[in-house]
């Protein structure tokens, strides 16, 4: 893919002008000038050295809502772009198009015609219109709206014939063709593009426009048209609406049906599932209206107040069998045949005029002069809508535009069918090509693959990189649904905990240094040296980035955060601040850094913990091994708030002096240790405890939640506002407990439950439930410290149920929600509606949340405690549901636990160079 990154230098000879209303032909009335030409602009493109292939682009950008639809108008022989605005039939077409909320672009050749019979590869009109349109799209449309439009074609006469060629090189979503049924050979040639790429060009309108107008405009690549010797890299055949007018003297209905049959016979290869649909190729038979005097007065504005002229023309069209020598003949002499006819008919036959009075003769002379003056406009009106020959047609324009909307809905359905039927495609940038050169060999131990800080809780960044380096999920970035940005920002920031003794200002400067000199250049390279950032309408929304620290992207300044606002974060921290009142204070604020999390847009994933490789005894004696009810060891002064869970737990450091009996089994009620303990003691203590207390710290997340699950304990979460990993898919209530921080003093009652008689069964049930989802919090990763063996995932047969499985499920859902309109602005009506629609329509991918949010809910807690406010002056005694033993506390017997751990603990010690836990 290296040649993708070679930018091609394109030089364009452009002349830019705006329409000067004063230069419009004087035949237009002033009212019509202001009505039809408003917002109309013109640019001229002279990219080709041959002046025969210079083009006028006349356009109106009239976007009224969030849709970006542009219709390209191709006229017939000798037709100029302005004709669409000056001819009454053209104005009817434009009016219908505007009413359907399309922007309008008319393209005309300097020759007033197109090379409609020359094959695509040799066709200079196709080539130079394609290249001119690339320039216009970027200089005009993208410059105005910062996204590319959905493109449609509307062709009449020879423009319709030429559309059959042009639609094979442009991302045309649908086309409407009048008079000619398109270029037969051009619309029946298969493309040699890869089937998956063809499918994406067919179903993904945003990608298709980006591919032609951004990727192939700025990059040199052999898949792009007119950039290599390869041929037949054509776009798929778009759905087509053919209009056959029964008056047409040049074509029969069979000419259309022959072409349609040829396309249908090969529809899947020419245009995939979209073209294969029965509605994608439509033939409409149109019957022109009768040219009555009243019809002419209504539609030909020059005769709006000249009934006599309309009547005379009608008589001419109807014919006159009144010649003296033809009184007995059935022949009717007609004087208007879509070309310059003899409009002095009556002068040549004075016998007809001799009965006319002076007024009638004056009206005829006026009529004859109008015919000569407005011949072209009159020809369009009658040879178009009334004759159906070589002209603009407004017949059935409303029906055709309605059909286009139906095709848009069809493409929407086909795109989702394709997405749901295949695996998610993620492509990762090569980190070595992103990292600034000065940092590639700088502080090698700061890389996440070596960093041991915090029991390797930052290692998930490295694991993600290893996974996608080893995965061949998608080799072609042009097919990717998401692009992963690898980086080690947090590992650089927290390298060797150098920041510990920093003041807030020093820490801010420390973070700012690595953000601006290490991280920002990575993002800049992605934005400017690779083309994929703008592949979607919202730049960066198809990108993923993992932030493995507790602030997510909150460590970045506002400018960088705004730059990454569309990127989906993978991080360990989720906070439901959206459930709080607007004036509520920040829940977690440390060193003036807020947690950045957009619920339903970002994804919470668990950190890596080495305990995931330990196998715990799951036999029936598992419960009997438990010696302690509640356990916590860690730093209490780990939050700025005096009312944080850790600060409140300090009241439990003085251990209760009695054992507690629950259903014939004795437990030490609670052990709370302020500070570090040796690693082996810490692990054994977790294994021997029923519950592991998992309080908040500087942020709501904690690796203890996952250590508890991995070591056979039940996590008791003490954190307000927390979002747990994969809540949409995993029933956290079934294997964990959660208590709001304000109720910490009721923790014993909460843990024991309302009825101690079923305590053992309840605990075993939670353990069984945890066993079902244990791999959801495991990365199943093996890191060789000595680098004698490559990092790898183990065991291979379990990879399908590990963390990545659930990340993919989350991203599948995000993709659907983004497609339906969701964005980083989770409170916008578009985002809310998109999430609701996704969970209703695609519930098997995005299951609707039925339960209360976990964030501020304390589940499994009795109603009598739900609103209780505890005093902070003393520890609440255990309830009488548990029988207290009056004998003094005895040392805990850990022999059985040590036996269970055995060699596994020794193996873990080899993995852990750090001997302490936080």
UniProtKB/TrEMBL annotation:
Pfam families: Exostosin_GT47
Name of this protein: Exostosin GT47 domain-containing protein
Record family assignment: Belongs to the glycosyltransferase 47 family.
Coiled-coil zones: none
MF GO annotations: glycosyltransferase activity
Lineage, top ranks: Eukaryota, Metazoa, Spiralia, Gnathifera, Rotifera
Organism: Rotaria socialis
Biological process, per Gene Ontology: heparan sulfate proteoglycan biosynthetic process
Domain of life where this protein originates: Eukaryota
Domain Exostosin GT47: 422-745
